[in-house]
Amino acid sequence: MTDTRPPYAGTRYPRLAEIPAFTEHIATGWSTAPVPATPVPGAPEAAAAHRDRLSERLPGQAIVVASGTARVRNDDNDYPFRADSDFTWLTGCQVEGAVLVMTPRPGGHDARLFMPPPFRPGDTGFFANAAHGELWVGASPGLPEWSDALQLPVAPAADLTAPPGALTTGSAGDDLTARHGLEPSPLLERHLAALRMIKDPWEIEQLRDAVDATVAGFAAVAAEIPRAVSHGLGERWLQGTFDRHARTFGNGTGYTTIVGSGPHAPTLHWVRCDGPVLPDEVLLLDMGVEARSLYTADVTRTLPASGTFSGPQRDVHDLVERAHRAGLAQIRPGVQYLDFHYAAMEVIATGLHDWGLLPVSVDEALSPHGQHHRRYLACGIGHHLGLDVHDCSAAEYEDYMGADLQPGVVMTVEPGLYFHANDLTVPPELRGIGVRLEDDVLVTPTGADVLSAALPIDAAGIETWTKAQQS
């Protein structure tokens, strides 16, 4: 039987490639000009130094690191692509489907980048490939442009040959995985996590920029609180305000923005942001701009929506502030990483005991077999920060929790208290109050630098700051 269906019938995309007249017509008549590759300034040089550090750590070991591919959101619609953090750290590049190969040689490694070339006019993929066809995604840099910009040899992805015995990390996509067996190596992930803990000057500059943009984003959100209340726009409006700011002044958000009003504030990851902004309740904002280099901030403040804390709200905030300051005081070189955690937890447990909320003594609560105070603070109160909001999480315990702080570490300190509205162990006036303070902190040779210090942490300062933004 002759197939009389049109070329697109029953297919996901039109089968235009099967129509000679169309393919001949669309292949010609286009002006072309090279499109420069534009990595973030300083990223290629920083990445070269990062590769040298990894080479010194793993001499003689072949290494393969992939950038990953976009994840499917639904049907044929993908989430926006975000390059793998290890790949970005080693290349300064954010191209989808790219793979870095580091081949050992005497005294180091030779690095080569493989990436899919864009489909230009004359290529079938120009109109048929929605991921790399320029008719779909716009004019793109070619491999020579990327090679010049990154100061790396760049070859087509189809030419990739994985060295035998290579350690690999990152998502190489189903096709590359099937052809080359590029399964992730936990060993390589741990080595990279340990290296990424110590930020170099360029990385610290990126984090400062991300934090500064985040502080400005907090001001933009605070200014919109009255409108969110009076017009019934709610938490969604404030979340959208920050997300627009992050996309304008950075790559986007470093994680899903948390906006929790009233009874939502105690929910640790309230990312639904679908409730009202209650005028007499506290508003917990956990937000971070991801810079275009992909380094992210992670800052939290708890604001009174009205501009003034109630008595119970201020009491909770004051206790969290004392814990926060105790944690910050432990951030300096030579101090064990977890010391800030223990210092803040002791303040929290003591305060809760003084309020009569602990069924045991402070010592019993703080013991490994107690932890009663953690009912109201079940999460951790800090982490490394960098390309990932919870940076270097693949590191060995002794490199992360068990290590002494060193200059160049960037971390968060974020104690809180979370009294859920349905928690009958707390008095009614405390139910539905959630408070968290979170700052981003750089360990310096002589102490610490709070990168987010432009935002106040004391209740009176926060009230004054909030009113100033709203006026």
Automatic annotation (TrEMBL):
Domain of life where this protein originates: Bacteria
Any one GO molecular function term: metalloaminopeptidase activity
Swiss-Prot/TrEMBL catalytic activity: Release of any N-terminal amino acid, including proline, that is linked to proline, even from a dipeptide or tripeptide
Domain Aminopeptidase P N-terminal: start-end pairs: 45-181
Gene Ontology biological-process annotations: proteolysis
Pfam family, one: AMP_N
GO CC annotations on file: cytosol
UniProt EC number: 3.4.11.9
Record carries keyword Cell division: no
Translocase recorded as keyword: no
Enzyme class: hydrolase
Keywords per UniProt: Aminopeptidase, Hydrolase, Manganese, Metal-binding, Protease
Essential cofactor(s): Mn(2+)
PANTHER family tied to this protein: XAA-PRO AMINOPEPTIDASE 3
Family label: Belongs to the peptidase M24B family.
Protein name stated in the entry: Xaa-Pro aminopeptidase
Native source organism of the sequence: Glycomyces terrestris
